């Protein structure tokens, strides 16, 4: 896809210079549960982060460029991307981890389900505004995905964890699996409980919630679950921009979700895991846009997400949601 012209954008323009406020990972750090991964294509997730958010490559000459935060605002410098990608296609090569752990995401290599190296997403397919400035989402159209199989600090086994992502509610399908979170390190299906990742979509192959979806579910491997039973009481989440949150601990898990533009998070499930997942065997890889075995048939959109190796309080969850709303998605 070619870079949109100025007429394709809203009336908003270049990134504004705004006071840098604490981000979600500052909130997690203040709660004593620091981020072990922090990925975003739209903004810094720490107040003091000034490094690159992602790296793009253009088709015309295969040159690449890091897209940094704009000075003063913490938002992605989309103007630099527009200039670099003008007249040609651009794809996202890497999503940088803003946390000190360095858990960057690169395109996924072959796995058990899709036995080939996956595609990079189009870097210009989803122009949006955040905080009054033009930025781009990571727009997955199937056969694309990113992962890191050699991470640092990510939860393994039954270690607690909390994850969230901001995604789009109107770009989903029932394919497996639009995930962000913890997965196998060998790109294979290693059995029930070897994953703990957030899923968003309309799959009904295992568990599901109420209505027609999409639903926020946990991917435990060999199953997407909206609760501890096949047809869970969890409601569909149909906002244009969605906050999806998942938390795992010994013996149970929590799912929360809400509108990323307004309001508070709704608790969709808080309790035990489905039968067969009593003990977790998390391996600590990080995936985006795919299942743990490289299942690559899902579509979705990713804007930001973070992971911790701890189980956060309701107050911390609420503060993260308030921070996302304050960022101004679609404004």
Identify the overall geometry.
Answer: globular
How many runs of DSSP E, i.e. beta strands? Answer: 18
Low-confidence stretches: 1-15
Mean pLDDT across all residues, rounded?
Answer: 94
Largest sheet, in brief, is: 10 strands, antiparallel
* Helix fraction by DSSP (H/I, runs of at least 4): under 10%
* Strand line-up across the major sheet: 3-2-4-5-8-17-10-11-12-13
Your description of this structure?
The structure is a single chain. The protein is mainly beta and 331 residues long. Helix content is 9%, strand content 34%. The chain is built from three helices and 18 strands. The strands form two sheets. The chain has a ten-stranded antiparallel sheet with strand order 3-2-4-5-8-17-10-11-12-13, with helices on one face. Strands 1, 6, 7, 9, 14, 15, 16 and 18 form an eight-stranded antiparallel sheet that branches. The protein is globular. Mean pLDDT is 94; it is low at 1-15.
Write the layout of secondary structure elements.
Layout: H1 24-30, E1 35-40, E2 52-58, E3 64-68, H2 78-85, E4 90-95, E5 105-107, E6 122-130, E7 133-141, E8 146-148, E9 161-168, E10 179-183, E11 196-201, E12 215-219, E13 224-225, E14 241-249, E15 252-259, E16 266-272, E17 285-288, E18 299-308, H3 314-327
Antiparallel strand pairs: 1-18, 2-3, 2-4, 4-5, 5-8, 6-7, 7-18, 8-17, 9-14, 9-18, 10-11, 10-17, 11-12, 12-13, 14-15, 15-16
């Amino acid at each position: 896809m070619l870079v949109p012209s100025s007429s394709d954008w809203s009336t908003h323009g270049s990134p504004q210079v705004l006071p840098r406020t604490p981000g979600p990972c500052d909130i997690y750090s203040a709660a004593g549960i620091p981020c072990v991964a922090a990925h975003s294509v739209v903004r810094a997730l720490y107040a003091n982060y000034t490094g690159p958010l992602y790296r793009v490559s253009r088709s015309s000459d295969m040159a690449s460029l890091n897209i940094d935060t704009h000075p003063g605002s913490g938002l992605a410098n989309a103007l630099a991307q527009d200039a670099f990608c003008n007249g040609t296609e651009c794809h996202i090569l890497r999503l940088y981890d803003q946390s000190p752990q360095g858990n960057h995401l690169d395109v996924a290599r072959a796995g058990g389900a899709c036995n080939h190296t996956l595609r990079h997403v189009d870097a210009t397919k989803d122009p949006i505004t955040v905080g009054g400035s033009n930025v781009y989402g990571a727009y997955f159209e199937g056969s694309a995905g990113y992962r890191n199989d050699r991470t640092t600090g990510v939860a393994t086994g039954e270690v607690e964890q909390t994850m969230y992502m901001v995604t789009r509610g109107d770009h989903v399908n029932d394919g497996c699996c639009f995930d962000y979170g913890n997965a196998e390190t060998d790109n294979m299906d290693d059995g029930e409980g070897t994953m703990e990742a957030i899923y968003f979509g309309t799959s009904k192959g295992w568990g599901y919630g109420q209505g027609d979806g999409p639903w926020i579910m946990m991917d435990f491997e060999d199953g997407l679950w909206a609760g501890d039973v096949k047809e869970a009481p969890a409601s569909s989440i149909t906002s244009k921009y969605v906050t999806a949150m998942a938390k795992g601990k010994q013996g149970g898990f929590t799912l929360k979700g809400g509108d990323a533009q307004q309001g508070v998070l709704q608790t969709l499930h808080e309790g035990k895991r489905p039968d067969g997942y009593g003990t977790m065997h998390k391996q600590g890889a990080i995936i985006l846009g795919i299942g743990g075995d490289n299942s690559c048939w899902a579509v979705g959109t990713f804007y930001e997400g973070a992971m911790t190796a701890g189980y956060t309080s309701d107050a911390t969850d609420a503060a993260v949601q308030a921070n996302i709303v304050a960022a101004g998605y679609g404004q």
